[in-house]
Structure formats: structure tokens, C-alpha cells
Amino acid sequence: MNVSVDDRGSVLVAHVTGELDTYTVSDAKRVFDGLRATEGSEVVVDLREVTFLDSSGLGALIGLYHRVSDAGGHLQLVCAGVTLRLMELMNLGQVLDISTELGEASASGGAALA
User: Fold this and answer.
1) DSSP states of the chain as a string?
2) What pLDDT is attached to residue 10?
3) pTM of this structure
4) Where is the STAS domain (predicted)?
5) How many Cβ atoms sit within 10 Å of the Cβ of residue 28?
6) 31 Cβ partners below 8 Å, 6+ apart?
7) Per-residue pLDDT tens over the stretch 74-109
């Protein structure tokens, strides 16, 4: 598992690749905890290259959602393949902003990523 962060000014994008599971979640949490979460901040987590996501990885994403939301920011997850199927199966789109393209604007009016 690897997480790289791309600071695009008004938007932070964390690109996650590989397996996000109980063995790698502590590294992901460390990166997520370092993401700026302030009033009006936009944080995007790109999960399109994640090959496996278990409950501990999902817990880290939900924890990030709460931290960003509590700070007055907005979190968007970009999903495909296994991550998109999991989000759909768990109906997480009712709570989380989930898209399939990095360039889509968030449903809550966040900035589009180019």
C-alpha cells in the first residue's frame, strides 16, 4: 500500500494504491492524519487503484470523513472496481460523497479537479 498526497492549492488529493487493510491501515492513518482539515477545505481520496479494502481500511476512511466534516471541510472519495462495489454494497453513497472520476465536481459544490 502506498499513499501519495498532491496539494492542488484549494484541494488536497490523497492517491491510495494497493491493499488498504489491517496490515497497512496504520500507515494510511498516519498520512490521513496529516491532511489539512479546516473550514471550507476540500479533501479527495483517490481509491481507484486500491486492490483490496477491508473493514479497518473502511474505518480509516470514515474516521477521515468525520475529522474533515467536524472541521467544516468536505471529503470526496473517488472509487472504481473493488472500492466502488464495496461502497455500493454498503450504501455509503448516502453518507459519503463518492464519484468515479477524479475530475468530477463534488455533489456538495466542491471544486472540480482537473
Assistant:
1) -EEEEEE-SSEEEEEEEEEESTTTHHHHHHHHHTS---TT-EEEEEEEEEEEE-HHHHHHHHHHHHHHHHTT-EEEEE--HHHHHHHHHTTGGGTSEEES-TTSPPTTSPPPP-
2) 82
3) 0.88
4) 1-114
5) 24
6) 3, 5, 14
7) 999 999 999 999 999 999 999 999 999 987 534 344
**For residues 83 and 54, is the Cβ–Cβ distance under 8 A?**
no
From residue 24, how far is each of 30, 52, 60 by CA, in Å? 10, 11, 11
Tens of pLDDT along 7-36? 988 899 999 999 999 999 999 999 999 998
**pLDDT digit string, tens, across residues 35-45:** 988 999 999 99
Closest CA to 43 of 9, 18, 19: 9
* Nearest C-alpha neighbor of 51 from the set 81, 96, 7, 94: 81
The answer to whether the beta carbons of residues 70 and 14 sit under 8 Å apart is: no
Residue ranges per domain, the chain?
A: 2-89
